[in-house]
Specification:
This protein is mainly alpha-helical. It is built from seven helices and no strands.
């Protein structure tokens, strides 16, 4: 198995995750909400474009050293594991679309003690790692830029929704944790 194949397997597991780790009807729903601001189709569309980019062979661009490709494959699996951890800890509140429920509360255990959006961090690591496994610098740059844009919009919409729904508890949580990267962002 080579790095692109290994990372491709991580993406297959990523897709299966959507069916097996979501708990409850609300978590599995694709019902559009006003709070979403179109970010769910943006993210799914970005995934589709990225898969297309990953299948294009002989794209121009510098070639990464073989160690970078294997590091990318490892990063894809590490991101997947981090996403799974976030999904399990958040449970029924880990939804596909942006929505809250009346019994929702701020979760601060597991990966949520370090970052507010560990599932998104895990997703980014999985997809960017897969891009790195391709060995192509242009693929890495395109995938990173596209998904950072999509997730930045998603996080902005989600943070607005959570402040409105959870109030002072979420604002206090925002003050003591970072969005995606501990100690940085």
């Amino acid at each position: 198995m080579n790095p692109p194949q290994a990372a491709g397997f991580a993406l297959i597991l990523f897709g299966l995750t959507e069916f097996f780790l979501r708990r409850g009807a609300t978590a599995k729903s694709l019902k559009h909400t006003a709070a979403d601001h179109g970010t769910t189709p943006l993210i799914f569309g970005s995934y589709a474009v990225v898969v297309g980019i990953l299948f294009v062979r002989n794209l121009p661009g510098g070639v990464l050293p073989p160690v970078a490709a294997w590091t990318g494959a490892a990063m894809a699996f590490a991101g997947l594991a981090f996403r799974w951890w976030a999904m399990v800890v958040l449970g029924q509140f880990y939804t596909r679309t942006l929505t809250t429920t009346p019994d929702q509360r701020v979760v601060t255990r597991g990966p949520y003690r370090w970052v507010r959006h560990p599932g998104y961090l895990g997703s980014l690591l999985t997809w960017v790692g897969t891009a790195a496994a391709s060995g192509n610098v242009i693929v890495v740059a395109l995938v990173t830029a596209m998904l950072l844009f999509a997730y930045a919009r998603r996080i902005a919409a989600e943070e607005t929704m959570l402040v409105e729904a959870l109030g002072a508890d979420y604002v206090a949580y925002q003050k003591r944790t970072r969005r995606l990267v501990p100690l940085l962002f």
